[in-house]
Amino acid sequence: MHLVIKQKYITIGDKFSISDENGQTVFYAREKLFKLLANMDIMDLNEAVLCHMQAKFFHFFSYFEIHDAQGQIVGNIDERMHMPFMRRAKMTYGDRVYKIKGGPFKMKTIEKVDGKWDKKHPVCHAKKHVFKIADTYDVEIDEKRIDPLIGAMIALWYDKVRHGRQH
After folding, report:
1. Taking the CB of residue 90, how many other CB atoms lie within 10 A of it?
2. Would you kindly state where each structural domain of the chain is located, as residue ranges?
């Protein structure tokens, strides 16, 4: 599945529209304002929350919990240590484990299968449009191996940590 994530240009807080390969909006994402730590909701077209990402303060690097629509924790994204221009994180979602690697303009997520990292077949791959005024990402998601909603959440995490707004 191909998604295009576009940040709205003039807003208070981050707001994104998430469209499919046909240009039809499938999700919206919104950062909640007036919170101590960064958090993001992904919503359907009726603005019902589908999942939520919440930063946690007690970690030295970025750590986000992922909640489902009912508020239950279903996973997390834990960034261990990053170098300038490079982001590395481990994500758990249910019983699956993923590794996220991101540079200045692209990010890929690989899955641990049978105890080995499947580097040849990423489950999620995002590329930033360089010459756009607002942040725009093309995201390729292997929807047989990861939920498109979680793939969109990974791309939004990548945008947050690239701009240093995780805490």
Report:
1. 14
2. 2-162
